[in-house]
Design brief:
244 residues, mainly alpha, P1 Nuclease, globular
Length: 244
């Protein structure tokens, strides 16, 4: 009897914990890989790895909040909102999430590790994934019933075709120039705000994204990450890009 009660309490506690934890997936694996590859990252094949890492319970509490920001107050995203999240990078138990700060945190990790003479490329893998997450509308809006019910469908809206249609991502890319962290915060805000606005639109119209809308968002992520690769580049072999 005690054992049964213990099991019931354990399951109940686990369910209570899960009830306020957002589904931290954003886009499915092939979509993430395609964004990173289109941006010119030679480690594009690792871009889904951060989702794999957080799938283990030991890492989930710390890693999951790096993948989303529940904009519960529906505020316009600006550079100040990005900077407000930086100190929360890798902080466990942040139910609202801190995706914007995680991107800057990953770039800072890269610079720190490179300055220390360490292998610094894996922070860029995490950065690639976070930047992919950034353009997904439901990772920039309140995690309500609409978000929960439509999250998986929108994550996978182009998953089945994206590897054969990477030119559609490329066609939506623009030049993003980042010379310092101030520029980086501004450009993160631009992509996040575009995702927030699209999230409000599909919620109002009670529908999923179209493929055209998804590819436009993916182009924005790829553009930003390409800009980040150039910004972090010191040795051209470091991130697979050739110097201009």
């Amino acid at each position: 009897m005690r054992f049964r009660m213990f099991r019931f309490a354990s399951v109940a506690a686990a369910m209570a914990f899960q009830s306020f934890q957002p589904d931290a997936l954003a886009w499915h694996d092939k979509t993430h890989l395609s964004v990173a590859e289109t941006a010119g990252f030679d480690l594009w094949y690792n871009a889904a790895a951060p989702d794999v890492a957080k799938s283990k319970s030991a890492f989930s509490a710390r890693e999951s909040p790096n993948h989303y920001f529940n904009n519960n107050d529906n505020r316009k995203v600006d550079a100040a909102a990005v900077w407000a999240q930086v100190a929360r990078y890798d902080t466990p138990g942040d139910a609202q999430g801190h995706l914007y700060g995680a991107i800057i945190g990953a770039v800072k990790d890269y610079h720190t590790m490179k300055a220390e003479g360490k292998y610094a490329r894996y922070p860029l893998v995490f950065c690639a994934h976070y930047v992919g997450d950034l353009s997904m509308p439901l990772h920039n809006t309140v995690y309500d019933d609409f978000n929960k019910n439509r999250h998986s469908a929108n994550d996978g809206v182009v998953e089945g075709s994206v590897r054969d249609n990477m030119e559609r991502i490329k066609a939506n890319m623009t030049d993003v120039v980042i010379k310092n962290d101030t520029d980086l915060a501004r450009e993160i805000a631009v992509v996040a705000e575009s995702a927030r606005i699209l999230g409000l639109k599909i919620r109002k119209e009670n529908r999923d994204m179209t493929a055209d809308e998804a590819y436009l968002q993916l182009g924005r992520s790829a553009s930003l990450f390409r800009g980040i690769l150039v910004y972090t580049q010191r040795d051209p072999s470091e991130n697979g890009l050739r110097p201009e």
